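U., I forgot to send this yesterday:
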Amino acid sequence: MPGPAELGSQKGVQKQEFSTSSATNQRFSQSSIPCFGLSALFFASAFFPPALHAKTFTPPFVLRVGFGTVFAGAGYVLASGDSRNGSGIATAWSLSYFLIEQFTLGLEKTARLPRSRLAIALSGATAATAALYGTEHFLQDGEDPDFN
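Result:
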């Protein structure tokens, strides 16, 4: 029977084996760089000229600045080392962006406008962020260390 010192050293040891692509995905999903990149994209999109909005749908200014701030906050949480909560924040707000964007698009009284290239770029980058951090939050992150 193992002694108390051996039990204590083995208590929190869990071995997980990942494939190469899964390990790469986990490394990126625990990094704050994709989240800060998406935040920068949202902030940069706020400076596009209003003429771009005339014939196509582009998310409102407040939506772009607001989500830029939220993703910067999620990047800060990830940079501080809390990958569980940071990936959860990034995933939840990415999915919220899609709901709010569709709600905003549906409230247009005029005929539905085609999406601008900017709106497609924001949606594509947000979908990639939701997929990246969602796999970390829901699939790869096994047990929550708070409940050990």
